[in-house]
Amino acid sequence: MLKNASYIIYPLFRLAFSMAAGIFLFDRFLSDRLSWPWAFGLFGIAVVLTCVCFRSSVYRWRSLFGYLATLSFFLLGGCSVLYQQSRIDYLWPQEAEVYEGVVQTVPYLKGKTFRAEVTVTHRLEASEDTCIREKRWLPVRRKILLYWILDSAGTSLQCGDRICFHATVSRPVSDMNLTGFDYGKYLFRQGISGTALAFEGHWKRLQPAFMLTWKQRALLLRERLLEQYRNWGLEGDVLAVVSALTVGEKRELTEELKAVYSAAGTSHVLALSGLHVGMIVGILWILLAPLKRWRHGKNVASLLLVVCLWMFAFLSGLSASVVRAVTMFTLYVLASWVSEERFSGFLSVTLTAFLMLVYQPMYLFDISFQLSFVAVYSILLLYPLISSWWSPRNRIGTYVWNALSVSLAAQLGTLPLILYYFGAFPTYFLLANLVVGPLACCILCATLGAFLLGNLPVVGAGVIWLLTQTTVLLNVIMESVSSLDGSQLTAIHLSAFQALLLFLLLGAVYAYLHRRSALRLMTCLGIVNVFLVIGIWRYGRPFSDSFYLYRSEVYHRKRFEAEVLSSANGFYRLDALKVAVLKDSTWRKKQAAEKLAVDYAYICRGFRGNVEGLSRVFEIRQVVFDGSLNPSYRKSLKAECMRYQIPFAELPAEGSYRIVRKY
């Protein structure tokens, strides 16, 4: 397509990088200090100055054009992320109120509650006048994560239903000290403005009054496909893998199965990505091959292929990695219609990143977005270098070496992100990825064949049997690889700066291999030294050794690791401290001749009783209320604590209570 592609790739990459930098820096440092209208004003000024410099006949001013264009895209990224944050953020009332909304995702059971994303359309405001109590519905238009307890009638909700509920909506909170993961910020960047819990009898399903969106229709279609899988007799790990690999549904995946694929280095096969899109393109291209015989049939087949891929993207939930792959293919098809020249891979991936960030700046903070683009850039850069190390003389050797080269290039490029986010590295990923690709392709083909031939008595049963056995074989191989000695290096904890140093090291090594020089070698060694010094400092500095009360459990955190403590009767002795976790009716209406001294009474959901009853058995120094307690029940317990002059602390829904260890 482009004879001088390099003259377009570099400016586009620079502008896309500037926009990404603006998104990151504005989100990190200016989200609470600058509003998006002010940022948009600065962006407008920068654009005007850019146009003036471009039109100027004075060379000195025209030389500033590149810098001002870069600044404009930097401010564009900042404007977009601040505007997106303003559409998510909302000042929720502190008290419980009545809300109306629409269920946006398929509800699923988590523990004893159902969970789904709900777009809150209105809230009922009650304002009291001197003699008239007026009520009015106020527009909200924010998305929350709603938990609800099923009522006695067994009323169920599905995607697209309208719901009215009475609950306290609060902003997502996190506990970085315990978990090391900012869950609140993660939800916010996913567009979630708050979380709420609606108890039994505090919610009601309303009559549908809205047209379903395309995304909702796709999610309902996915549920029907999953039901068809169950009708075929798929169950357990087979159902989980087929569901994840074909439609991106990961609810059936158990923690054990995730751990197996993670240790084998093939977790990417369970998360839809460019690998799956490439397989689907190959399968559909073969099925649409007869169209190529007609005039313009190739263009028609390409158009149908693009439509099918976007349908698949909606069906899979529009994950960042799938959107990236489908967008790149769409750009490739569009380019093939206007030119016969080859479309540059660097240009397509850079343009795709730019378009995705313009559409949704929060994509930048999505782990799948980061891994997907870094993997593609790594393959484009490192695959030619690695594949040139050896030239096999037969087809089997060529396939094996090409597969190993692609896998190694992607794994090397994403290594800093994998270590930073997951703290583990699979050592046998090359071995596992040799078989995961062909077997995953067989599973996709068998699934498509089962849909096409499933109604035929013998043939359909044979295809379903083949699908089941192929999936079982994949699981067995992954389990065998993960069970090898030293299959995974764990407990690797990198800081963000160390991850950045690893990226710089990869870039320096790549530059050195392309053109060897003493300066480039010294640069590599210097980065390694800085990385090691920071690692030694992080592991050698003093650390806090603490206990945490969190989600009805007691945790012990030491340096980077946190483990849950176990107790048969709910009593924990933490050095000199005694903690009682109360989440049932064991101590209700009990008495003791001699009270048991308890430093912390952790009252959680499921507790039956009151503080007065506990004071007959325990001598309580402080009460800690878990965030899962019913608000009205918690209010009455707090009143009792104040009456008996017992200090208490309240935890938010996702918060914890820290107890510093005593020696």
Uncertain residue segments: 1-5, 129-133
Report the major sheet: 7 strands, mixed
The portion of residues forming beta strands comes to 15-25%
User: Mean of the pLDDT scores?
Assistant: 85
Gyration radius (Cα, Å) is: 29 Å
**Number of helices, where a helix is a run of at least 4 consecutive DSSP H or I residues:** 21
Structural class determined from secondary elements: alpha+beta
Short description:
The chain folds into five domains: 83 residues; 114 residues, Beta Barrel (OB fold (Dihydrolipoamide Acetyltransferase, E2P)), CATH 2.40.50; 256 residues, no CATH class; 45 residues; 115 residues, no CATH class.
Question: Care to describe what's here?
Answer:
One of its GO terms (cellular component) is plasma membrane. Residues 245-515 form the ComEC/Rec2-related protein domain. The chain crosses the membrane at residues 6-26, 38-58, 268-288, 300-323, 343-359, 371-390, 396-422, 429-452, 458-477, 489-513, 519-539. It is found in: Cell membrane. This protein has 663 residues and is of the alpha+beta class. It has five domains: 6-88; 97-210, OB fold (Dihydrolipoamide Acetyltransferase, E2P); 234-489, no CATH class; 496-540; 546-660, no CATH class. It has helices spanning 6-30, 36-55, 59-62, 65-88, 176-179, 183-189, 214-231, 236-247, 255-264, 274-287, 297-315, 320-338, 345-359, 367-387, 395-422, 429-453, 457-482, 496-514, 518-540, 611-615, 631-643; strands at residues 97-103, 108-110, 113-128, 133-148, 162-167, 192-198, 203-206, 425-426, 488-489, 545-550, 553-558, 561-565, 571-574, 577-582, 596-603, 618-625, 648-650, 657-660. Strands 1, 2, 3, 4, 5, 6 and 7 form a seven-stranded mixed beta sheet that branches. A five-stranded mixed beta sheet has the order 13-14-15-16-17, with helices on one face. Strand 13 (571-574) and strand 14 form a beta hairpin. Helix 10 (274-287) packs across helix 11 (297-315) and helix 13 runs antiparallel to helix 14 (367-387). The chain is globular and about 90 Å long. The chain starts with 5 loop residues before the first helix and ends with a strand. The model is unreliable at 1-5 and 129-133 (pLDDT under 50).
